[in-house]
């Protein structure tokens, strides 16, 4: 495959945007490390990477919302340093956010001028000239936006064009589009891509953030891949396939987390039958999923993110209404509350540990109680057992090698890996019979990753049933006893992890090839 | 994303604590800041700042003033605790005002209508007040849980409804009688068995401290124990800190919203009790109003901490009480309201400044540690 490394990107003209050695650290995490990126003028330049790879942080740096700790940003050849988004706008960089920032009860015109109103006579807003400019921009780029329409009457695609127009109105020549297709239906995606081509034909530059590989391949002139906070490759879309891109995104050079002999028993710990989840607008997100997990078995679910994995997990945890049957051992738990499911022995390592796994501003020992607030050693009747909880937190810290100055520090002070080890330790406490491990090693360093894999393997050997959701194909293949592929909410393939390569799995995930 | 991201509201409501020496620097900064602003205002209005404060301090330390301060502080404390219960889980119960007025009115009417032995009579009145406060607050709780109505909006509207309902009930055809020797009307006076006698604990004055100051202390202790030592309190604080994490841990958030609202309302029901059972013995047109809003300010000032709120309530009561001397000294007593506002703002600003300083310092430290020595460990920006 023809992949140029980042150093090999050579160009005669000055890049519209050039990033060199960008590094951004947050307490406990390096979000971006030594990023190198060159975006040619008049290109649609796609930046792809898994969720959490560091794309958003990078774009926030480019848009002036975050300041890098190290590195250099050049716009049209000149070094810049942005203190706020308004600096970025002045330099001609505009951002179209994934979630629209429009006031429904105002017209397109009012929304566009909001914050940069043209003045007439010092006080009055000059709507006339603004309307003229909007029409002119709309015609130049073929956006088809009517300045006097109410935003609430517009469809999603039209609203997005208003967002684009808003940015152009402020004089942007470089547009950042953050996951612009996430909210669009296929026809709208095609329209958007038509608009984007129009924009680059007029000399604008577009930075397009996505993890949908087929879309990226169809629209981009150049692609940069980000993995684990750094740029790993710059490729030409003509030279790569979706499969190769997927490999670059998830990486396959890490040593496989091999599990040795099978520990699978024939006792089913958890079974799910015809489980379906619907979104509020009646779309089917999880569609009739059926599987069983036996004691001592790790069932891996592979899939491109956003294909229903998160909703499936939340349905099993009872956090989201669902149809179908869920059985834990012999018991039908479909109607149980989240608390009762947890008490019955379901452990949960959530995908987003900051949102669902931790109280960041509470000390570690209080985080030990979270999710186990009805069980010993954390409580005695209605009372919190401080001594018991603290002692057990100390045990977790030692046994799971959580690097911390003590159990009274806030969870936010720990690095991502240590936070995750604390969560793993907590969820393994209280003798779970079934564990959901959702991206258990995402955003953690290599050392913590190996430790977490060891803990999962040991628990499996002790008879724990594990549902493993991951975007890391090596992790899935290495840890799972059984592998299923999920696509658009359905289980579309069963794969034998013994005889599958990451490439085969990758193509099954995109629905492109046959499962092995 | 920044792992340590907390919202401004979290910091405003004291759910994020500055640590170490910095926790002391915030209140000090606030006092200095408020002092400077007040001095400027006094200078502008042509009064010498130090002497004015001296006059207030002199007056505030006289025995009779001290009793008045304790009595006001008792009421303020209960109001602030009622507000703080909601604050601790992100509920803004603006309706404490309506809850306590309605509760005091109905409890007074019940107390005046029955005759019971002393301890039972008092207990009944207090119980009715808590029940009415809780009931009125539960309307807002139910609306939020069942219909998603913001409790801010519904409690403000319920305040207006409580005012109207109170005016309707306090009529000679219904709960009110004429008060002898005045053109005021009020509920039938509560007989002696339902009154709580004052305590002459400050030497040098005949004025007595509300007996129910004990109730305020008990409420403070219960608040602390309930929130920090019980499973229920853990669930409540967890919900306030992160609703999504609370849901994932098995907390029934809707149930918690309802219970917290009911508890806040029950505490609000107590606000009128020291005054009703200790002094006026009847709910009349002259019963104090607006205490619910004072409670919001004091809860912010005390950062929802039971001891902090006690200091806040005493400070507020001191300023209120000593304002009466200013008029005699021919200084505009409104200066006190400016001081109160300035103090609340200063506390909020000071904690925010300290918090930002801490975040920035923490990031610099981590950057320095990671930049030097061993190569940085690669980690994705965990979402």
Structure characterization notes:
The complex is a heterodimer of chains A (516) and B (383). Chain A is globular. Chain A has 4 domains: 171 residues, 3-Layer(aba) Sandwich (Rossmann fold), CATH 3.40.50; 70 residues, no CATH class; 154 residues, Rossmann fold; 77 residues, no CATH class. The N terminus of chain A is likely disordered. Helices cover 32% and strands 26% of the residues of chain A. In chain A, helix 8 crosses helix 17. Chain A has 516 residues and is an alpha/beta fold. The two termini of chain A are 22 Å apart. Chain A has a 7-stranded mixed β-sheet, with helices on both faces. Chain A has a 6-stranded mixed β-sheet with strand order 19-22-23-16-24-25, with helices on both faces. A 4-stranded antiparallel β-sheet of chain A has the order 3-2-5-6, covered by helices on one side. With 383 residues, chain B is mainly alpha-helical. Chain B has a domain of 226 residues. Helices cover 69% and strands 2% of the residues of chain B. A two-stranded antiparallel ribbon of chain B has the order 1-2. In chain B, helix 3 packs across helix 14 and helix 5 packs across helix 11. Chain B is globular and about 70 Å long. The N terminus and C terminus of chain B are likely disordered. The chains are: A alpha/beta (516), B mainly alpha (383). At the A-B interface, strand 2, strand 3, helix 10, helix 11 and strand 21 of A face helix 9, helix 10 and helix 15 of B.
Average pLDDT rating of chain B: 85
* Rough outline of chain B: globular
Question: Helical residue percent of chain A?
Answer: 25-40%
Total strands of chain A: the figure is 25
Report the major sheet of chain A: 7 strands, mixed
Spatial strand order of the main sheet of chain B: 1-2
User: How many helical elements of chain A?
Assistant: 17
* SS-derived structural category of chain B: mainly alpha
Low-confidence stretches of chain B: 1-5, 372-383
